Amino acid sequence: MDVDENGLYRYNYFDQYWTENERFPFLIKVNEKYGGFAFVRKLKHETGSSYYSMAEFFILKKYRKIGVGKQSAFQLFNFFPGEWEISEVEENIPSQWFWRRIISEYTNGRYIETEKKNGRGPVQRFYSMEDTM
User: Model's pTM, two decimal places?
Assistant: First the structure.
């Protein structure tokens, strides 16, 4: 996506994260400075059961590779116990590597990976906390 005429990147669902009950925005702080953000959604399967989705997850480059992303992801998984689904864009290989490593460590390798319905990238599914697949 392109930036707008003011040089800003417009996220289509940004406002809804502060107004809708099933969307949860988080700012990630590192030593009292903002180091990233995460947007979590609660969605429903066709069967009616609920699951959580990591809609957006971003850590500033200066805070990467020191455990901030891992710690933040683990805290979010624990905060929202239950079924999770995380998907990545096919072209974003670093994101795929990150999520596979983080989810595998969090679940002790107990997760399922499939392709998105449109075939454009992987999806990891797992349960957080004491839930098991």
Answer: 0.87
